[in-house]
């Protein structure tokens, strides 16, 4: 039995382009983001992949990426489950701020700590640890059973919500996790063993160099 799980970070969003903290705000994809999503679909098609079920967040940038990928695969209308458990990390008071302006307000070291630490949240927001606590139980309860039952499963979400899943899949420490980069529109294909461990991983990363927020 093949047990395949594919994770894709959404294509570039309008706020990615403007260098803004996005979090739970809902900007759409840029033209480049649309093309990244389509390219993700083409890369998956070249791998001979199709899906039995898909999951995405409640935010349009992830939903559109999911739709564009499935369109490239000729799978429009595939059952897709949307849940806010897969939403991006909530950046609290940083949301909507230009990252350079945030550094001027709070200082480089403080903003770096909020962005790159595991358990220190920005004011009014979530730490990466908080995001893991929100996202991982949903994955174990709602997504993983499909994978273990042999359904090839697509998860289109966000840099930090996906890192919460990757932490478990790749057995990363908190220190390793905060350094784990995900490129926009770049699928990661996992083959999963019956005991939920990873048998193999293939990163179909494209040329994008957008950083995680």
- CATH classification, class level of the domain at 4-90 and 131-152 and 169-203: Alpha Beta
Low-confidence stretches: 207-213
- Helix fraction, binned, reads 40-55%
The sequence of SSEs as H and E is: EHHEHEHHHEHHEE
Structural class of the secondary structure composition? alpha/beta
Mean pLDDT: 93
Strand count, sense and barrel status of the largest sheet are: 6 strands, mixed
Name of the CATH homologous superfamily of the domain at 4-90 and 131-152 and 169-203? Phosphoglycerate mutase-like
How many DSSP E strands?
6
Strand content: 5-15%
**Strands side by side in the biggest sheet:** 3-2-4-1-5-6
Termini, distance in Å? 37 Å
Radius of gyration: 16 Å
CATH topology of the domain at 4-90 and 131-152 and 169-203: Rossmann fold
Account of the 3D structure:
This protein has 213 residues and is of the alpha/beta class. The chain has a domain at 4-90 and 131-152 and 169-203: Phosphoglycerate mutase-like (Rossmann fold, 3-Layer(aba) Sandwich). It is built from eight helices and six strands; from the N terminus they run βααβαβαααβααββ. A six-stranded mixed beta sheet has the order 3-2-4-1-5-6. The radius of gyration is 16 Å and the shape is globular. The model is unreliable at 207-213 (pLDDT under 50). The active site is at 10 (tele-phosphohistidine intermediate), 88 (proton donor/acceptor).
Write the layout of secondary structure elements.
Blueprint lengths: L3 E6 L4 H4 L13 H16 L6 E4 L3 H13 L7 E3 L16 H8 L1 H9 L11 H21 L4 E5 L1 H11 L4 H4 L10 E5 L5 E6 L10
Helix pairs in contact: 2-3, 4-5, 6-7
